[in-house]
Amino acid sequence: MKTIALQRKIVVSADGSGLVSQAGGLLLLETLRVTGLGRELSAQLERWRPSRAVHDPGKVIADLALTLALASIFHVHQVAG
Fold it and tell me: 70: Cβ–Cβ under 8 A, 6 or more apart, which residues?
């Protein structure tokens, strides 16, 4: 078995320094709902939805955008300190 010298250790603490806030994600989701952007995105992408598709393409795009936004916030916090 090979060992990798640069493995990161997972450190658990109770000081709150590693917490990632999801308030920004909730704000983005609420903005999608209130503005109707989520419904409109779904309506505009409907023509590309295959007949047997289970997932709404607008919801998939919105979830992807939310994931990228939260991941970038997490990355900025990790780099900053």
Answer: 20, 22, 24, 25
Q: Report the residue count for the chain.
A: 81
Give the pTM.
0.61
Residues 6 or more apart in contact with residue 41 via CB below 8 angstroms: 58, 61, 62
d(C-alpha 37, C-alpha 66), whole Å: 13
Digitized pLDDT (tens) for each residue of the chain, 81 residues in all: 555 556 566 566 666 555 555 677 888 888 999 999 999 999 999 998 988 989 999 999 999 988 888 877 655 555 655
20, 73 contact by CB (below 8 A): yes
Position 54, amino acid: V
Quick one: tokens of 28? 């983005």
